[in-house]
Amino acid sequence: MEIRCGVLTVEIEHVDAVTLEKLELQGIDCQPKASTIRIIQDKYLQKVHFSQYGIPLPDFLEIHNLVDIEKAGELFGYPLMIKSKRLAYDGRGNAVAYSKEEVPSLVTGKTDF
């Protein structure tokens, strides 16, 4: 006799959303849903999602490279909070640029803005 899990709960977003999707296709009730985990895993998608529901947020911009950060500095001014899109939590993956000149040293080697 096969015994299956009826509900799988996820406490933290550092899980494989693809695996959760596969489990959902097999009839496992994943909570939160894989689609929710995907949003939670990407800080930019979180902000877009929240803004669609009228949740007040500071101004934000998706960043792909150093030039984008410099544009954000021109648009929003300094100090400028720079956050990683993924794997950022408890302050990890965040940096504050107090000037345009400071930006390159804060993002050296960074590939996931």
Automatic annotation (TrEMBL):
PANTHER family: PHOSPHORIBOSYLAMINOIMIDAZOLE CARBOXYLASE, PURINE BIOSYNTHESIS PROTEIN 6/7, PUR6/7. The keyword ATP-binding applies. The lineage of its organism: Eukaryota, Viridiplantae, Streptophyta, Embryophyta, Tracheophyta. One of its GO terms (cellular component) is chloroplast. It comes from the Eukaryota. InterPro entries: ATP-grasp, ATP-grasp_carboxylate-amine, ATP_grasp_subdomain_1, PreATP-grasp_dom_sf. This is ATP-grasp domain-containing protein. GO terms for molecular function: ATP binding; metal ion binding.
